[in-house]
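notes to self, project folder thing:

trying the whole complex as one job this time. last attempt i did each chain seperately and stitching them together was a nightmare. three parts in total, labels are on each line so i dont mix them up again. if this works i'll redo the older ones the same way
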Amino acid sequence: MVTDESHPGTDSGRPPIDAELVRKTARLARLEIDESEIPQMVEHMEKILDLVADLGIGSGSQSDSFTETEGESTLPVSEWREDVPATEDQPGGPRDPKALGSNAPDWRDGAFVTPRVVGGD
Amino acid sequence: MSWTTVVGLEIHAQMATQTKMFCACRRGSSTSPNESICPVCVGWPGALPVLQSEAIRCAIRAALCLHCDIQEFSRFDRKNYFYPDLPKGYQISQFYRPYALGGVIPFEREDGSPAELPLVRIHMEEDAGKSVHESDGTSRIDLNRCSSPLLEIVSEPLPMTGKEAASCVRSVRDLLRWVGVCDGDMEKGNLRCDVNVSVMPAESSEYGTRTELKNLNSFVSIERSVLVESARQIEVLTGGGEIRQETRLWDQDREITESMRGKEDSPDYRYFPEPDLPVVQIGSQDVEEQRAALPEMPEIRLSRWLNDYGFPQLETVPLMARRANGDYLEEVIQAGADPSSASNWFRGEILRHLNDRSEKIEDFPVKAAELAALIAAVKEDRLSGGRAKSLLQEALSPAVSLKSLIEDAGSQEQDSDALAEWVDQVMQENPDAIAKIRAGDMKPMGFLMGQIMKLSSGQAHPKKVQELIRSRLS
Amino acid sequence: MGESAGSGVLPAPESTSLEVMAHLKTGKCTTVELIRHYLKYLDTTGRDLGAAVEILSDSALAAAQESDARRASGKPLGCLEGVPFTAKMNIATREGTTDAASGMLRGFVASEDSTAVARLRAEGAILVGKSNCDEFAMGASNESSHHGVVHNPWDRDRVPGGSSGGAAALAGSFGWAFHLGSDTGGSIRQPAAFCGATGMKPTWGRVSRRGLVAFGSSLDQIGPLTRDARDAQLVLSVMEGRDPLDATSQSFNPSETSSMKRIGLVSEGLTEAIAPEIRQRTVEVVEQLKKMGHEVVEVSLGTLSKANACYQVIATAEASSNLARFDGIHTGQRVESEDLEELYSKSRRQGFGAEVRRRIMLGTFVLSSGYIDAYYGKAQQVRSEIRQEMLSALDTVDSLMMPVSPFAPFRIGERVSDPLALYACDILTVTANLAGVPAVAIPCGFDSEGLPIGLQWMGKHGDDHRLLDLATSLQDQDDSWRGLPPGGSQ
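result (full assembly):
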């Protein structure tokens, strides 16, 4: 029997979880992960994804899940918020920038401070 | 070998609403950093986005004037990425179910022929904040712009030149301004453009690998960057190299495009439906309301002006530049002024005044009806042209009503002692001319008129001056 | 108790909020006396249990004084006048901090009330403290809070359930007050069942989520933990309804006005996987319902077996996005670095606990390129099947009943090392969240070790008050829920 090397697969149909996949996911989530923590994370993700395999992973196309809107709650145009600025004393109104900055780790001269931002999006 | 450049556009237009897209903070009027922010646009835990209706209405108007199919149901999705100007860690956008599909941007080819750039879609999304780089190695984050309402207009790729690409963006800018959706000031950043560029051999029909040039903020940079980037690609390809699909930055000063460093992973935005916002339903009634609210579109107005008013084509250029200019002119004409005089007054006196002060017609203190009355007074010879112009100048200072100025001036001139004095003075100073006229030679009449007008600083009414001279001589 | 430090006579410890209001009305004690005593309870038993993490004495006593003054001057009183309440650490309040029990949000001052809290205060309820919970409400045992573990008042070596473990321990150990929790996959009902309290998860959208630190937005609901269903009824009626600051909030009407006659017993809730004593108790309650004139039929929910898997994907996916805002720049703790990417990943590594990091990892994975269709997309598809099946079942019966937890409260530390053992707690509760329907859990007696057993009833969207009526009629038949744990009130 020949195994497809690119998709070694498992009985449950879940993709193989390896250290590189964990590192890649951690990078995407901006979570530092120590090399020593990786084996346990691999094990936990394997276990949970095996549980999740009950869903019938990989069977059929799920693209409708993203485009289907039937059965979801909808709001017509007129029921959305009116375009009127709120005042500071109203719930949902603007707040004193100082108060909003007070929970930020580094707030100086009325701005959030970060290490130099490279590039842009 | 000859090459064809293919361009696709992603135009971001900030909608000219009072408040932000998802919170009730004021949009666009801030002077200092983080002046217009609240828990929602700062991304505080527990704060929830609430879409506002005027942004949807603006979006409908934009879709109508770009001839898109407006979708009855559309939904927001989260575009997940980390960036300091994006405090929630995701941007609320429409990915899977945009509100408008298809459509076209009308533009002009370099040879002057009309063309259309087909659109893929338009979607609504929120803007990000701004990072300002400091000399101390830090960046300061200003969230005033964060969560402002944006439209992203995404085109298909189409063979075109840099100049034509700029013309497409200008066309969108003019249309969105015209229908009151976007202020369209590229230098203020409320209209921005990403350009996808690829090249292919002229005989080919298969588009090459594209690169994306981000955040071009002027028509010149669109035109130049397309030119420079396509030249770079052609050079790479003729040298046997390959084009990498990537995002590049346009360096305006050095006129080069540069690969963005430090982005080894291709972005994975993990789009999924935004659970904090219900599906947006745009009914046919909403669409019809906005259609009815659309102003007369530029091509229709232009042809009407050319045909009905007989304006020369060249005269219409300054009048068409902003819809509000034409709206004012129309009001003046509706109030009874003849179109040709109204156009002359507008292009002369009014535009000069506005340009001198960098003001807009909306700031012009004289009402259209008053200007029409002034024009009528001249037409009916109750006022001289010069006098009328100086009255208009007086009316431009606040708290002076042109209407009362016209009335005063009219009554003044009818029994004007001043006029008689000017006439008498000039007649006394020019006995030779008087003698000639008495002898039946009317030629010096023009000279006398000129002297009197000069003495009166243009205020004297020529017809009355003539009458007065005749009565003195008879 | 009975006597207070002042001159007034205090209500009995097990009194419900409604009984407390009746007591205050008679003038036997003042609101200040009542609140002062309750604050003392929070500071002693509440802290010993690990349940009360912030006690807001100054603002609570000031509010009590105002309430007494209103009453004395004959001014209009609120429908929760003078009743003390607590809010879970993930629900924003003007006073105190709102840290979601996470080191990441240590010291976070929300400085304004969530809509639910504001509405309760407007009706005279008095916020007395903040309750402990699992970090970002992720857990079923209240062992992941940076404020420490919470103990079950019925057996202090055992967990109170979670994530609203603090609220449940308070509600289970002493009367008078009501407690706000949040329920994403059972976080109100499961701890209520473990601690002998009544817990209500409203229809999704019924109570504004504004001011609730989001975990899984499409699943989260704020709800009350109380002594009985009457209190829950009252509290819910004050909190519920459309809030302009939560676009997903709605005012719901019941599907019909009549009481719930036909009850469906979910057969999948009585399998071998459920502890025998809990199954036994369920059968007994069914008999009681029949005696009360209800018709009880067995109903199968085939999708129940997929619900937990579906929940793990959707809840973690949404959580991975909801928790992205804690980036060490706008909110959250920061580990300084000159490199932005390093600042992000180190701050988030340090700020979040192990369970939260695990869920962010899983949620990021199921949304990532190449996997999103197979996982998140598939889960959404299954979610819609679950919802469909639930609604079809509720077309044949008024309410569906089953146990809340497959097992009794377990020992502290017993399930911490294996995430799957912890996730097994949710198998019977997540279905209501996935379908968005209301569910009420009420205490229904005790097992042989004296630990509370809770059962739950689910109804159609909007049938929250009908469910609470049903729960009330059951509680009127059997008042074993009134008993407080020995020593719990000390």
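what i see at first glance: Residues 15 and 98 of chain A are 48 Å apart (CA to CA).
need to look closer tmrw
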